[in-house]
Amino acid sequence: MGFNCGIVGLPNVGKSTLFNALTQTIAAQAANFPFCTIEPNTGRVAVPDKRLDKLVEIVKPKNVVPSQLEFVDIAGLVKGASKGEGLGNQFLANIREVDAIVHVLRCFDDANITHVEGSIDPIRDAEIVETELMLADLESLEKRLEQTIKKVRGNDKEAKIRLSVMEPIIEALKAGKPARSVMPNKEDKEALKEYKMLQLLTSKPVLYVCNVDEASAAKGNNFSNMVEDKAKKENARMVIISAEIESEVAQLANEKDKKEFLESLGLEETGLSKVIKEGYQLLGLETYFTAGPKEVHAWTFVKGSKAPQCAGIIHSDFERGFIRAETIAYDDFIKYGGEQACKEAGKVRSEGKDYVVQDGDLLNFLFNV
Hints:
Layout: E1 4-8, H1 15-23, E2 41-46, H2 50-59, E3 63-65, E4 68-73, H3 88-96, E5 100-107, H4 122-153, H5 157-174, H6 189-197, E6 206-212, H7 222-234, E7 237-241, H8 243-250, H9 255-264, H10 271-282, E8 285-291, E9 295-302, H11 307-314, H12 316-320, E10 322-328, H13 330-336, H14 339-344, E11 349-351, E12 362-367
Parallel strand pairs: 1-4, 1-5, 3-9, 5-6, 6-7
Antiparallel strand pairs: 2-4, 8-9, 10-11, 10-12
């Protein structure tokens, strides 16, 4: 089960620098000119989780596998992308494939780094990207509208539901609001299904990343304050980072050196850790663990998933032949110091097909195929 976040923004806002630091590679060429990222670069990163470290201390396995999240560095967008300007068509096609959007906004002044719009204004920059995505969505819906109406006249049940979903989205887009602002109620599963099938760009959750100068990394600046206000109004998420600092940290091999470097800047953790954690939460993801002498493994699942679905993440046979899940709560595992001690304390539960897996659960699946 793969989950990915597309890193987007105008050219020269620090997307590729951020991506390089995230993946600790030089796969994406960071250069001072538009479209230096032509093909989307993909990198998988470990999700920081202190619980995994504590499990490793207790179990002492031969191998450790953390949860992972995929980031895709997508070519910079300019005005007119919805009409194919710049690398617009490619940009829109690439962003359609990701699960969530990490929107990098330039929140620093530097005369040596050009800005495609000629000045620094993160709100304007955000609106340029959002407008292009909304225009692309509106065009997509209007192309499908006539055909959907014809099917409704023919008494097509699914078309009626689809039209009831499409109409408020079209109105929202015309009013300058994204599709996610009129997302159907989660209880209305049929409408929600049609909503997802529309595959709209502005239906994707967004995390704003304010790329600031080194001096502003701890507390932000006037530019990031503007973005924070915008995020609050939209009920969206935002983080503050300095892509340059993250690049420097990524080059330090020793964890002690990294910690000392961050502390010298008044930082408790890297901005990248915050981006990864927020991306994980943005997608509504949680973690369960499997733990044994051979391996401690963190598995990513969608919040609210039941035991058989989570078993299927390991292997489809586990879901197909699911019998039950031997379950230990994370806090119990730590408190009693391992599986055997939890068994002796009566803290191992046998859960069936309807069990909703909880974040941090330690699971052992029993199955038969």
